[in-house]
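User: Quick sanity check before I run a bigger batch. Here is a single chain. Can you write out its predicted 3D structure?
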Amino acid sequence: MDGFLYFKDLEKEFHRIIIEVKGGGYHPKDVRALAQVLKREKAPMGILVALKPPTKGMITEAAELGKWKMPGGRKSYPVLQIVTIEDIFAGKMPELPDTSDTLKRAKRELRDKEKNLRFDDI
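Assistant: Done. Predicted structure follows.
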């Protein structure tokens, strides 16, 4: 497990998406291993981010895990998605529920010395 994303379903329950990153070679067994991690961690979804494109076997392994239906809604998401770095740079992102609600941005506070700071003072 290299990272997590969190989201709230329509029934206000939080869920975790597990992210695994593979920088070199990877195989269908790596997809199966991530599927086992999802099961063990009770995570409804996972993302495998890889440097190289997946083989047909890897795509099949991921697809066989099926889809996860969002509680309280009609939308379904692939249980495991494989994306490459190239995909991400090209703007192709995994299909995910809205994760923006899980992190709230803190209000910006200025220290006293920053309040009167001018550009030419730097």
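Residues 3-121 form one domain.

User: Great, the batch can go ahead then.
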